[in-house]
Amino acid sequence: MGFDTFLAQDFPQMDSIFRRNLINGLSGFKSVNLVGTISNTQERNLAIFSQIFHLGATPALMGMIVRPDSVDRHTLLNIMDIGWYTFNHIREDFYKQAHQTSARYNQSEFEACNLSPYFSAKNPAPYVEESHVRIGLKLEQRINLEINGTIMVIGSVQELMIVHGVVAEDGSLDLEKAGSITCSGLDAYHKTEKIGRLSYAKPGIEPKEI
Amino acid sequence: MGFDTFLAQDFPQMDSIFRRNLINGLSGFKSVNLVGTISNTQERNLAIFSQIFHLGATPALMGMIVRPDSVDRHTLLNIMDIGWYTFNHIREDFYKQAHQTSARYNQSEFEACNLSPYFSAKNPAPYVEESHVRIGLKLEQRINLEINGTIMVIGSVQELMIVHGVVAEDGSLDLEKAGSITCSGLDAYHKTEKIGRLSYAKPGIEPKEI
Fold first, then answer.
1. CA-to-CA dists, residue A175 to A162, A163, B7, B29, B183, angstroms
2. Residue A157 touches chain B, beta carbons under 8 Å
3. How many CB atoms lie within 10 A of CB A51?
4. Angle at CA A139, nearest 5°, toward A147 and A74?
5. Nearest CA in chain B to A52
6. pLDDT for the residue B73
7. Res A73: pLDDT
8. CB-based contacts of A137, cutoff 8 Å, min separation 6
9. Are B75 and B37 in contact, with CB atoms under 8 Å apart?
């Protein structure tokens, strides 16, 4: 079995599109979400992000990486101004609309991309009505990553709306029942099929499917 | 369509296992990797991590969240001591062994879990021979996240070994050809099926499959 090998010293000479595709693909399948925000002037913003990650369960915290020089900038400005935002899982039946939110619109992406805002009593930022897993967050911390000028936004989970039947008795989420999809690289979207759930790992005991 | 709703004020009263499962499932499908490290005394360590994310393509940087009080601690110690580590995508044919690395072993997880170390000329840390996408990283920065005591480790991509046929002409990775899988929550593993790749989004133009 042969391998293609690339070294850091090769990266600067690579075609820039080739390099972006290659490096963006390395982390594997990503946690892709639509991020909903609202501005001081009540404009509703929606943008697709794949650099989202679990940070801890107690307290319930999630992280997101934002690039300030991109179409992400409205999202960041709104989060800093209002202090609230939403993550919304993406389903196959609206993945093209979700992708399209990454275009540079001068109007609300909800209207431009034909997605419906949903407002709760608690969160001033809009959720996506079409999403079956909706997460409301409050800004806790902004960390400027000087190494490459990106920004890490840490939020606490304040509100969850998850369609009936997805949350199992033990609290785990059946994401396939929710229709949540994943992405890879800059532009590829994938649905999933469960291989198995495995029991808590202990030395000397083979993991069992649960 | 009905939704189950949870509020932050409910979290402290929840059963702790229910809460851990619920919150760990929120980020959706995750970038699961085996992280290979080596100690000062040449002990080879391998641990499964799902809090891994792309940080930027130029320079090529990846982030990882580590909990210092868990079985992750050897990984962190080794990275801090040696300055090098590896990410290795997980395939279905060894996902149970990969899961099993999360047990608290007093010996090398390579031996205990029957996975093979592979060493390159450049990187002192071991790769996983069974993996079809192997990433060599050099430590660039450690950021202590005081908000919950976790640690963000930022590394620069130094070396890539990707099995033939996975890297397309435009640099994008066909992760299904590599057999890379994804995970959700604390213990569920999933394979994927591509829905589509979409063209770069521009206002007023419908995204096309590419």
1. 10, 10, 20, 8, 10
2. yes
3. 24
4. 70
5. B27
6. 85
7. 85
8. A62, A84, A85, A86, A87, A155, A156, A157, A158
9. yes
